[in-house]
Backbone:
């Protein structure tokens, strides 16, 4: 299992815990990650709403690099994965635009054919790696903990371009959590947006939206929130203190983890290896329950 690793902008400039936990856990599952030389922004969101050609070029450029490597493209970010999937879909439907994009790529000696396989982390862990391999790799199962899954909008919508999980009833992240020995459960707010897309235009609205989600998670008795989306993590973890102020609840404390951080803890890896010391939400209570890591 060998994949071209696409980090995207947010992961490698802000969400170091996600990258660290992915790099240390995937090899233990037999997954080989190969860094992409010359990778750039996928075009989402800076170009996608401003200049369609610039966005399609930026997205196709990275897929062309992966095609040149002869490897499936593993994008850590939900938004990046969606950008690639939408670009692939659009260029399949529009040969003229594909030719225009390739005309620009030719200046770098690149060509986009459209045959790259896109792999989301849900697909890699749930569909390809599978339960048996994950459970066999565990030495410290997360017994006695109950987590709320946060798949993130871009992992489930829009369905027309093919997403890694069901838009109305996503289950893969829940399954992955239970495979670690913890519990997961459906809750009405599971597929609600984190509000990150509004952050620039209406920052307070983002905090209000995220606050409602965190209140629901706490009210329903979960030990914490789990995601694989750097945008969701950035809002729920990094902005949790700002959310407390905005919603007027200083007691609104919810531990937030990347799934791969919990996977690493269940494997018996150290917190520092997984970038958990970079989490800004109150994770100590959960870590104390896990122990041994």
Residues:
């Amino acid at each position: 299992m060998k994949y071209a690793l696409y980090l995207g902008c947010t992961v490698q400039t802000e969400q170091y815990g996600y990258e660290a936990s992915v790099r240390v856990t995937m090899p233990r599952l037999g997954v080989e990650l190969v860094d992409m030389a010359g990778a750039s922004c996928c075009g989402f969101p800076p170009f996608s709403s401003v200049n369609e050609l610039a966005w399609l070029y930026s997205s196709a450029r990275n897929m062309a690099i992966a095609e040149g490597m002869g490897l499936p493209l593993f994008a850590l970010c939900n938004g990046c994965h969606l950008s690639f999937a939408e670009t692939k879909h659009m260029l399949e439907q529009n040969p003229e635009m594909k030719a225009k994009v390739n005309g620009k790529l030719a200046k770098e000696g690149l060509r986009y054919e459209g045959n790259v396989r896109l792999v989301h982390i849900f697909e890699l862990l749930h569909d390809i790696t599978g339960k048996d391999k994950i459970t066999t790799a565990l030495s410290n199962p997360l017994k006695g903990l109950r987590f709320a899954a946060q798949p993130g909008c871009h992992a489930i919508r829009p369905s027309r371009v093919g997403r890694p999980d069901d838009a109305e009833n996503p289950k893969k992240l829940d399954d992955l959590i239970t495979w670690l020995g913890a519990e997961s459960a459906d809750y009405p707010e599971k597929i609600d947006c984190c509000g990150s897309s509004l952050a620039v235009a209406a920052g307070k609205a983002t905090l209000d939206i995220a606050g409602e989600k965190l209140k629901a998670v706490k009210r329903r008795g979960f030990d914490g929130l789990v995601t694989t989306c750097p945008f969701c993590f950035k809002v729920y973890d990094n902005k949790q203190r700002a959310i407390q102020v905005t919603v007027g609840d200083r007691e609104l404390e919810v531990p937030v983890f990347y799934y791969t951080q919990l996977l690493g803890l269940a494997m018996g890896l150290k917190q520092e290896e997984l970038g958990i010391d970079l989490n800004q939400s109150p994770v100590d209570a959960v870590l104390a329950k896990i122990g041994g890591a």
Notes: The beta strands are 2-6, 32-35, 73-75, 118-119, 146-150, 183-184, 224-227, 256-258. Residues 139-290 form a domain with the Rossmann fold fold (CATH 3.40.50.11810).
